[in-house]
Design the sequence.
């Protein structure tokens, strides 16, 4: 294999294609210093009722747009909740609009037709409907005319980071029975001009890719085998519940739901760790990140295969990476992954099958299949001018150097229920 040049040009750059103009928003969770005052508890109940009434009105009139919803249902809702602060009533419509939209999306996709009324106690206040003193961490929340409550937040060092940052403005406030979520908004940071590229192919158990900078192209890897194991473990447990509690669907369903929540929490925690290591690497190296666009990928028809290849963690990982990158001004490029795992980056031949761990081409090129795919993703990004005018020659690939972006051992959080040990065995 030739080890000729791989060079990058910092000429005209076309990374604008990927800039989102919306403000990045970060929700920060605060605990409350004391129990919610009575008035606030009543407000939570009222708000939930108002949202569900609005959902019902929206379903009857077959609308999902918030504005239309307000037009047709505001009067009725005002009569049902004569004393509610009008801004809260308006945000009830917004929450209802969200519920209706996701319901419509689900129905269109042929999914569950159950209407998701809001069951949990919650309320959302838009940024002008509450006051937060960022020094003391005290929220002043109006309930109705002449009635306000004060909520004292517990502020840690982590929270201080957001409260003291003057570049962040306050967004909406979500009030739950035992906690408060404050949205912090930030002007979308200017994307830096990439000096290198990190191209990642997303697989079931790892991100594999290449990091190209100057004359060097190296392979990189971020492994997350634990995630597939966690999925497997919880899947087995769900199967067991379904068998044991076959006589009581209600219990079985409740146990399974709880299992699913735990699974999500455990996986999401790890996904954040992985995304953090990828993002901080990219930031240090001033890299553009190239990812495949997973939108077109459908799950297979067979149920068993469906679960094994569950695309959710990978999509979620992309979401987290994109969002963290947006917050820090790191350019991210999404490219169509079609044929990326069967194409030879040297001669361009497309192979019929994609089996085997190694990609071998008639022209003599051979490489780990996942890494080969990431090279193709990188080339697609470059050919579309989306990687900041960088150029790249796969011949410069250095086989002997592998950089580890993330290793499972780095997620050193022991789980008190001992499940991590069991996961290791299965
Ligand atoms: Zn070839």
Sequence:
């Amino acid at each position: 294999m030739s080890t000729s040049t791989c060079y990058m040009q910092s000429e005209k750059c076309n990374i604008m294609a990927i800039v989102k103009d919306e403000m990045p928003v970060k929700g920060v969770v605060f605990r409350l210093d004391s129990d919610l005052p009575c008035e606030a508890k009543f407000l939570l109940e009222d708000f939930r009722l108002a949202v569900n009434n609005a959902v019902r009105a929206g379903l009857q009139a077959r609308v999902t747009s918030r504005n239309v919803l307000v037009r047709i249902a505001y009067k009725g809702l005002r009569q049902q909740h004569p004393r509610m602060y009008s801004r809260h009533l308006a945000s009830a419509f917004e929450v209802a609009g969200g519920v209706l939209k996701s319901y419509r999306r689900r129905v269109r996709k042929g999914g569950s037709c159950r209407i998701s009324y809001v069951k949990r106690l919650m309320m959302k206040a838009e940024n002008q409907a509450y006051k937060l003193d960022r020094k003391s961490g005290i929220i002043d929340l109006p309930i109705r005319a002449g009635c306000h409550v004060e909520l004292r937040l517990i502020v840690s060092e982590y929270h201080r980071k957001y409260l003291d940052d003057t570049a962040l403005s306050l967004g909406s406030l979500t009030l739950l029975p035992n906690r408060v979520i404050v949205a912090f908004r930030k002007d979308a940071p200017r994307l830096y001009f990439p000096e290198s590229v990190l191209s990642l192919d997303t697989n079931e158990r790892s991100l594999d890719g290449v990091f190209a900078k100057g004359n060097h192209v190296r392979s990189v890897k971020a492994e997350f085998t634990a995630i597939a194991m966690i999925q497997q473990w919880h899947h087995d447990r769900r199967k067991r519940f379904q068998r044991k509690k076959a006589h009581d669907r209600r219990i079985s369903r409740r146990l399974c739901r709880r299992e699913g929540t735990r699974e999500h929490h455990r996986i999401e925690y790890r996904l954040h760790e992985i995304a953090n290591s990828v993002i901080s690497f990219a930031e240090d190296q001033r890299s553009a990140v190239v990812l495949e666009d997973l939108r077109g990928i459908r799950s297979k028809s067979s149920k068993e295969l469906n679960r094994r290849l569950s695309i959710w963690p990978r999509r979620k990982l992309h979401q987290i990476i994109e969002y963290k990158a947006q917050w820090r001004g790191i350019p991210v490029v999404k490219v169509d992954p079609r044929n990326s795992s069967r194409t030879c980056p040297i001669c361009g031949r497309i192979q019929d099958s994609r089996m085997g761990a190694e990609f071998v081409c008639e022209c003599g090129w051979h490489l780990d299949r996942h890494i080969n795919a990431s090279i193709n993703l990188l080339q697609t990004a470059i050919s579309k001018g989306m990687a900041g005018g960088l150029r790249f020659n796969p011949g410069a690939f250095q086989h002997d150097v592998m950089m580890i972006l993330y290793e499972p051992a780095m997620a050193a959080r022991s789980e008190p229920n001992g499940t991590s040990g069991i996961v290791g065995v299965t």
Observations:
- Residues 194 and 286 are 5 Å apart (CA to CA).
